[in-house]
Design a protein that fits this description.
- The complex is a heterodimer.
- By secondary structure, chain A is mainly beta.
- Chain A contains no helices and 11 strands.
- In chain B, the strands form 3 sheets. In chain B, strands 2, 5, 6, 10, 11 and 12 form a 6-stranded mixed beta sheet that branches. A 4-stranded antiparallel beta sheet of chain B has the order 3-9-8-7, with no helix packed on it.
- The chains are: A mainly beta, B mainly beta.
- At the A-B interface, strand 4, strand 5, strand 9 and strand 10 of A face strand 5, strand 6, strand 10 and strand 11 of B.
Chain lengths: 114, 115
Amino acid sequence: EAQVTQNPRYLITVTGKKLTVTCSQNMNHEYMSWYRQDPGLGLRQIYYSMNVEVTDKGDVPEGYKVSRKEKRNFPLILESPSPNQTSLYFCASSLQGRGYTEAFFGQGTRLTVV
Amino acid sequence: AQKVTQAQTEISVVEKEDVTLDCVYETRDTTYYLFWYKQPPSGELVFLIRRNSFDEQNEISGRYSWNFQKSTSSFNFTITASQVVDSAVYFCALSESSNDYKLSFGAGTTVTVRA
C-alpha cells in the first residue's frame, strides 16, 4: 500500500530536549516536505527536499532541521524544542514538485512541548 | 500576504443540505495549480482535486463539484446533499510555478453536518 508513515503519532516533551520525527514514503517520490498546522493558520511549510541531499527552507524553518540521506526518508529534527513549536506536524511526498501531482500526507504527529 | 483565503471559518448544515466552500487565491503567475484537501476528525489529509490554471472546466465527482473562475480568482467547492461523513476541515491550496515546491494553504473551513 502506497503511504507516507510518520512516527511518533503523539509526543509530549520538555523544553530543550532534542527530538526527531521520522517520515518515510514507499512511493519512490522525489519531493518531500514538512508542514505544521496551527489553528486559524492552515498548514505552513517548514522545509522541503527536491531529492537526496537537496533541501531548502519553507516559510517557517526557524528551530527545525532536516536531512535527506535516502530518498524514502525525511526526518524532522528539533534540536531544542520550545513551547511555540507545539503543533500538528505533517510530512508529505509527491512524485514531482510544481503541483504536477498531488501531495500524499502522513497521518500527522501531534507534538506538545511543555 | 495570504495567498489563499478561505473566508468561512465554520459552516454548520443539516444533512441533505448543499454547502459551498469559498476559496479565493492570489498569484501573479500564469501557471499555477489549485487543490482541495479534506481533513476528517481522524486527522489525516485526503486529496480531493487538483486543477491547473489553464483548465477552467468545472468538475463534478459524485456529490462533490468545483467551480474554477480565473476572472474572480476563485476555486469554490460544493458538497451536494451533505452527509454526516462530510464533517471535516477542508483546505484549499495553491502551488505557483514561480515557487515550485510549496503548497500555500488557506486557513481551512470546518464543516459540520448535523443529522
